[in-house]
Design brief:
Blueprint: H1 9-16, H2 22-25, H3 43-56, H4 59-72, H5 77-92, H6 96-109, H7 116-136, H8 149-164, H9 171-197, H10 202-215, H11 221-236, H12 239-252, H13 258-261
Length: 274
Amino acid sequence: MIRLKDLHPGLRLRAMVAPLVLVLVAALAGCSSTPKDDERNSPEKLYADAKEDLNSGAYDLAIKALEKVEGRASGTLLAQQAMLDIAYAKWRINERVESIAVLDRFIKLHPSSPALDYALYLKGIVNFNDTMGFLSSISRQDLSERDQQASRDAYQAFSQLAEQFPDSKYTFDARQRMAYIVNALAEYEVHVARYYYRRSAYVAAANRAQLAVREYQGTPAVEEALYIMATSYDKLGLVALRDDAERVLKKNFPQTRYFQNGMRVPERTWWQFW
């Protein structure tokens, strides 16, 4: 039997971020039925139709039906379910901002919901995927002008999930993504520092490398960041600062090969990790 953890990360994500949160569906079993003549327009029937649209990938149609469900079933678990499905559907049609807005409203209105862990996880995933889109186009913009807010927002959502729901089925994956985000942010700062160094902007290179060392201690990128600091200070004639950076580098990474090999040239794009 194939276990969820054995799936390719992309497949695992699709398996975990299902359009429906069954924890709420189970609670709806006792809902009272409407008269037969109104059955076709009942929230339950609308939701069933929306579910079919979701499963078939007709997300625009699903959103319209789910918005009706949310309005007609206001104050019920079904309305909560509809909100989560709207957020999911909007994410799938690349309406990230709208999806996040729905999730933020859900989190604010339903802090005790049995699906709050899913809402936090989905918020993290939406921002995480935006981060991946940002990384995939990294060569097409000025590196010094990039905004990494989506990465930080994803980390915050995953962190809140891990703290509030340590036993949630979404927490293990969230923690893995948190670790990646920290490493990626550190790598990004080093990438920018390297970019500046190779253009002889040594002050900027040293500052970005120093930021990586200060903010992301314990990540693999710190080793190269210290080397960039040392070489940048050397180019600037700042001997004392150069010596300090070299001393810290050798103390924390006694096997470092940067002094022999120089700055690394990645064999693949640095942000590709899956």
